[in-house]
Amino acid sequence: MLPIDMSLNRAPQQLTHIHLMGICGTAMGSLAGMLQEKGFRVTGSDQAVYPPMSTFLAEQGIEIREGYRPEHLEPSPDLVVVGNVITAANPEAQEMIRKRLPFLSLPQALGHFFLGDKIPLVVTGTHGKTTTAALLASILDRAGLDPSFMIGGILKGYERNYRLGKGPYFVIEGDEYDTAFFDKGPKFLHYRPQMAVLTGIEYDHADIYPDLPSIQQAFARFLRILPPDGLLSVNEADEGARAILKEAPCPVETFGWGGRGLWSLEGLRHTDTGTAFDVYNRGRFWHRFSSPLSGRHNALNFISLLPILRRLGLSPEDMAKGLTAFQGVRRRQEVRGKEKGVTVIDDFAHHPTAVKETLSAVRNRYPGQRLIAVFEPRTNTSRRKVFQKDYVQAFNEADYVIVREAPGLEKIPEGERFSSSRLVDDLSASGKKAAYFPDTEAILDYLLKHLKEGDVVLIMSNGGFDHIHQRLLDALAAEERG
Fold first, then answer.
1. CATH code for the domain of 363
2. Do 83 and 110 meet the contact criterion of CB atoms below 8 Å apart?
3. What is the number of domains present in the chain?
4. I want to staple 148 with a disulfide (CB 3.0 to 4.6 A). Which of 32, 90, 165, 300 is the partner?
5. Domain of 463?
6. Is residue 195 located within the same domain as residue 213?
7. What is the pTM of this model?
8. Residue that is last in its domain, among 325, 358, 381
9. pLDDT tens digits, 241-267
């Protein structure tokens, strides 16, 4: 086993048993699988033990201990990895500190165990990180480079969000959220980037960042750790990103559309299977691509990778084949099914910009069909009123908007709370058909009474939304059977 020497509160030792607190989070569960593949005995604890992560961990033979209790650290593990969800008041964390056990955050553990002998390729930005990182990993794999990756969504075709490859590259989705209760700095500062993508910077994570400049400062810190011989690909059209480019010590290549950027998207065409578009490099035609992904934002996600892919030696033809073969990421414009002539789509969108771009992409994919947007404001930011007015314009492309009461509002200070009913009132005042519902059951009842053949239902939430997607499909199928 690997020796560990990171000032972990006690002397270096040979590790055999690693315990993960908050193991059922997407990233923590992935780390658990990676550590087990590396030969460690892995256990974990969590108070939210449910599928699909609980099923995945059980299939890997990883022991999960329900809840957070001091006795979960008996016998003492050699190392504890502390998830972002764990607070200093957590009883298991307090026992870890009392026993002076060595501990790391998830990003620290990823850097220590998996990045030391790899070349990290980090995808950052407010929007598009998951799809862009997944595209990069998939294209490299298709080109025979056998990359490792750890991404915030399940890649179709791999049916997991991590992989330990034998090639030199490690693709990581770089998150600006804070690291752990003992490290309030951004996660991506631990990822040792050699090359990076910055898709853009907007205000988000209102629970930890007070304003846009504070988020820009976090990204500026990330840019400063890029090496001089590295590479940064950045969105030319994004003002938030352009403002900090001087912090990058390495070459910078820009991307955009309509002639903006060294790499420019031109002639975007929507097709029955996705999109087609041309790419110009420094004003000259470079290559024509066909993509299975819908929307201009997804075409830009791909173009953001071209500087890195070219630096790594891929030809335009290699890139085109990898893009065409990309199967997508679960919960990103994922068609969950079609029943009784109604198409049900699942998407992770929650920020107003993501909602707007996703609706635009789905509208172009299903022209002439009624588009019903079902939205659950569930993130720490969307449950705050910071974007109360911005959401009104975000739903322009929808024919009908259904908004659920934000869950967990009691955790938000009363004066800062987002109002779903006020959003619906504002949408209605602007001429948009909209309705507010207090819970998922009421939404399902309404949809089943009003949906008709040809409708497209786009359900947007960063959570499970009470399994509304499958429940709706099952109910429609039952109606079809009579």
1. 3.90.190.20
2. no
3. 3
4. 165
5. 334-481
6. yes
7. 0.86
8. 325
9. 999 999 999 999 999 998 889 999 999
